[in-house]
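Internal QA ticket QA-208
Title: Verify multi-chain structure generation after dependency bump
Assignee: T.L.

Test input:
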Amino acid sequence: MRFAFLVAWREYAENAKTRGFWIGLFMFPVIIFLSISVSVLLETKGTPIRHYVLVDQSGQFASVVESRLDKLTPPAQPGAAASKAPQRPFQRAATPAMIDTNADLDSLARDLKPWLRGEKNVEANGREVKLDAAILIPREIEKQIVRPRARLAGSTAAGNGIEYWSANLADTRLRDEVEQAVNGEIRRREYLARGLDSAAIREVEQTHAPFASLNPKKEAGREAVSGVDIIRQWAPSGFVYLLWVAIFTISQMLLNNIIEEKSNRIIEVLLSSVTPGELMMGKLLGIAAIGLTLVGAWMAALIGALSWNAGGAPGITGQFLLALKTSNLVPMFLVYFLLGYVMYAAFILALGSVCNTIKEAQNYMAMITMAMMVPLLTMTFIPKDPNGTLARVLSWIPIYTPFTMMNRVNADPPLIDLIGTTVLLLASTAAALWMAGKIFRIGILRTGQPPKIVEMFRWIKG
Amino acid sequence: MNTNSQLDAPPLELRNVTKFYGDFKAVDDVSFTLAAGSICGFLGPNGAGKTTTLRMILDIIKPSRGSITVLGRPSALEVRQRIGYLPEEKGLYKKMKTWSVIAYFATLKGLTRKAAKQRAYELLERYGLKDFAAKPTEALSKGMSQKVQMLASIAHDPELVILDEPFSGLDPVNQQVMEEMMRDMAARKRTILFSTHVMQHAERLCERILLIAKGKKIFDGAIADAKRILPRRVRIETDDDIGPLRQLSGVISVEPVGMPRGAAGPKDLTHWELQIGEKADPQAILQLCFARGIRLRGFNQTDPTLHEVFMRLVGPEAREAAFR
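Actual output:
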């Protein structure tokens, strides 16, 4: 075994020096960091102030719109300098002087187009700024209000109603705010016109029966389903993806490594010093250690980033962190990573030993990759029915056991599934390693065309 | 621990070793023994079974029949720390540093990491590669790479060294270096078995050769004995009739050598080769020439070369293998 460890140590040391390893090591933490921090940063600081012009020919709604938009101003940070005072995300700009605000909406819109297209700038707070949107409220808006009975009677005037002009189709926040402000005011007036107490109506609208989601599998008294529970149910899918990436990455590493030794003709010297079994075991252990280093760093980065970002707050990252801490996700991930890796490594070792070039290996690798696609395709279905037929069938197929059971880990799968599939996976992995050893022993010294599958079966039997 | 019987045992012994690949017999009933501290050349044409035999000796592949004893043990893997091997197909880890490759193979042969590193630097310095010690092996020339591989195979100071085509691909200068390395080892009583196609190396290095063709051993003995397989030769140059020499006792044959420019027929032949028996005296030829008035412009007695012996013994096989 000493020689297997020597081989393993070389594999680890040499692979840890490669650029690919370091890229793999840092890529995931960087992605985690970016997805958690940068999105928050962009949300809070990166979203630019949008400028609009509001022409309210009816003279009825400008104040309610402004009042609603005022409420969007974020609260001031205690102790922050005055220059850092939070700003309203939507700022009203002065309507350009040459625009006739009393013209009909068609003319108004036509006249405003050079500003809306960015060809000209408007003025806001003493600065020239780009105009993002124009809100045009027609003089006769009252006649265009849609009332169900009036519409049936055909007494509603034709027209677009309030027009929202903007070249930015993706950001609909301003449009939504204006629409809600105007319609809220129209309804308030409608209640008054009909002699209804709008305050009473608001109270009625807020009247409801409490509705709780409860999980019978949870501890008595704590059955209520929380955000953490939802995350806990869906988080395994993320881990399945991570598992897939980790196993796929290091399987490729193992394959490249064997092909390099075969094509560089080092294998024969190695085999005069170690047995094929020791060589195979050394490679398996060395690359497993590389994989564990990678996933260990990824896990540490994930938990570190979540802890740093959550800071004890009950936000989504805090809930995710709690979900991780209160479930077996991380330890089960490591278990299934190791079992899954050894299972796939057995196939890779066998096929790598019979190929002389990466090109030759790709033909065989395509089959393994195709088989490995199944867990990705079923990844999002399994959490919806984690103990259903699809999940249970896939769990009992050893090459899919690590991925499927990882996906079911938080759904309390039956004990028979948990223990039975693990025992089957262990037995299949041992059998796969035994068969791989048989092929490896013969294939590793073979040159020329790779053998046919039938021939490899003969080696196993012989 | 080595028992007395293991210490007394020859470094290498093959008994009736046969290897089949399917129906093809790659090695056919080969037996030989190597004496401790000897250099033995393992010769044979392409496809003769040399590499297969060497791989069986190293227990990389198993013989179909027969037994192999290496340093007193039935498997080379049991005594791998005492064996060095340089395979025919040579390669190194491209990204590893030169010293590190040598040290790695030395640790696989039982040296500690520290001792292996020290030994790697020592060897690189001795063979003029010290400046390349910290460079990746991909920076080495082919000759240097081959030297490094040789150093990697002997870094643990093995008792038995097996070299498969150690000279292939080397320029004459590096071939010389390789020969020196082998002589160094032999001087320290290490046993060396090496295969080669270049007879001059075998002639210069070996006391003994093993010749195989089509998997069968066809000669096993001292180089001098191998040369006795072919008759000795005397070459003479004269314008006179050499007819009387044909009748001399001990002369086996007289053949013209080449045809001089402008020669129209036998009368114009001037160079002759006489094959003589083992006990024949070349001086008798010289005396007969003087007695019969044959005026000599040249007289030269030569022994057959190993190359000629090789060509005689396996020539047809070699040609067959070349076209196979």
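Spot checks passed. The two ends of chain A are 25 Å apart (CA to CA).
Status: verified.
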